[in-house]
Each structure stands twice: as C-alpha cells, then as structure tokens.
Amino acid sequence: MTELGLRLKEAREEQGMTLEDLQGTTKIQKRYLVAIEEGNYDVIPGKFYVRAFIKQYSETVGLDSDLLFDEYKKDVPSTQTDEVSEKISQMPAKKELPKSASKFMGALPTILVILGVIVVAAIFYILILGGNQSQSPPNNTSPNTEKSEYAVSDDSPLTDAEKKQKDGETQSEKTTNQESNDSAASTTENKKPELNISAVGSEGTTTTYEVTGAESLKLEVIAKESSWVRVRDEAGKELQAGELSKGKSFSHDISDQAEVDLRLGYTPGIELKVNGKTVSYKLNPNEAITQNIKIINKKEEKSS
Length: 304
Known about the structure:
GO terms for molecular function: DNA binding. The protein has helices at about 5-15, 20-25, 30-40, 50-60, 65-70, 80-90, 100-135, 160-190, and strands spanning about 195-205, 205-210, 220-225, 225-230, 240-245, 250-255, 260-265, 270-275, 275-280, 290-295.
C-alpha cells in the first residue's frame, strides 16, 4: 500500500464510509477503489483514468485533490501529466477575429465619444426647454367651476330636498376617501416579503446560499438518483448521514437554525428545496460531482 493509498483509506474511514458507500457515491467500481488504496494502478484500464479516479475519491472523502497530488507526486504515475499535456496540445487554436471586426473594434472608442457628446447635448436641450416651460403662468380657474367640500348652510337659497342631496353627496365623497385610505393601509400591512434564495459565495467545492423573506423554513433533500448525503445543523449535529436511495427524501424544519451544512456525494442526483422552492446550482463538467452546500438563514428583523 502506498502513502497516498493509506491517506485516502484513513480519510474514508474517518467519514464512516465503506467501499460500498464510496462506490455508490462516486460510481467507480469497488475493485478500482481497492486498487487505488493499494497503489495497484495496473488494474485500472488506462493510465489516463488513474488521476481522475484519485481526484474523485479524495474529494468525496473531504480532501483537497490539488494538495494531495502535490504532496504525493511519487505515488501517481508520471505519464499522467504527459497524456494531459498531449490532449491540451491537440485542442484547436483560438480563431482570430475577421478583419472587418478588427477595424470595428479599433473604431469603437471614437464611436463611443461621439455618442457621449450627442447624449450630453440632448440632456442640455431638455433641461433648457423644460426650464422655459416651467415659467409659464398657471391657468386661472373660474370660481364658478369650483366644487364645494362643505355641507350646505342653513341660509342657502336651495330647497330642503336640494340641501339633503348636496349634503348626501359630500358625505358620500368623504366615506369613499376614508375607505380608500383604509384599504391602502391594510394592503401595506398584509404584504409579506417573498422568499429569496441566492448564492453569495463559492470556494472550491463549497457553495454558500442565503435565504431571506421567511420566518419558518423547511429543508427538503430529494434523491432523484441514489447518493450519499450528510446534513448537519449549526452546532455540528448530524440530522442525516448515509445513503439516500433513489426516490427517497429527507425533510427537516430549520427555522431555528442560523445555518445548515450539507455534503452531497452525487450532486446531479440530488434536488434541494427550501419551503418548496428549488435551490438552483450549476455543475461545471470539469469539476467533481461531490459538493458541499451551506445554507444561511438570514432572518428578517421585525420593525418596532
């Protein structure tokens, strides 16, 4: 057994994972996992896969693959670097821009300057024109067209029926205005913030999400494919740890938690939801499928 193989095996056992668990998470056959731990790389079909399997193994058990390769260079086949270099050298060179596009890019600064001058001139013209219009005298309103907001006085020349009609119209207008104000105030009070889930940071295989706009939170972990899943609360207590079979799910109320940490062995096979809303995460095809997810509960402060 090589030093690299021993380090990987120790990390796997620290995670409490068997070779069968690791096989289910990484989709790498058990005999290849054993070969990696024993340093018997001849069993693996093609030296190109040796480095890929070691990378997948290490990240699944929580190790940094780049640091691991640098520390145990002597335990990884040296021909692996040559194969990667050869594949990179075979990639097509970046296409150059056509001459017409190059000319346009050269003239772009001049075009931007001209557009800027035009915009400034337009703003200046609008400000001057608007200033002149604002000085025009207001229209006089005929006193005969003004509508009285007061009830009809007792000495008005109107008949009793006309007085009652006038008073009724005035009171109706006041009631309508009051109802509109009450409705607007009620709408403002009943409006609640909308649940929002946003990614706020990413480092290595760890992505951090903030959840706002909800006082109560329910976390759901749904297995579309079988995967190893671990969920810990803010105190480090494990709420779920082990294989989550296809079609199974795990849910937990996390309203009282400031943050929750998850480790997904096979991320493409897992769907995360908070209050029924899916947590959208994207996987780079060149990155490991094992991911760490941190969900931070940003509780809204109640106004006094």
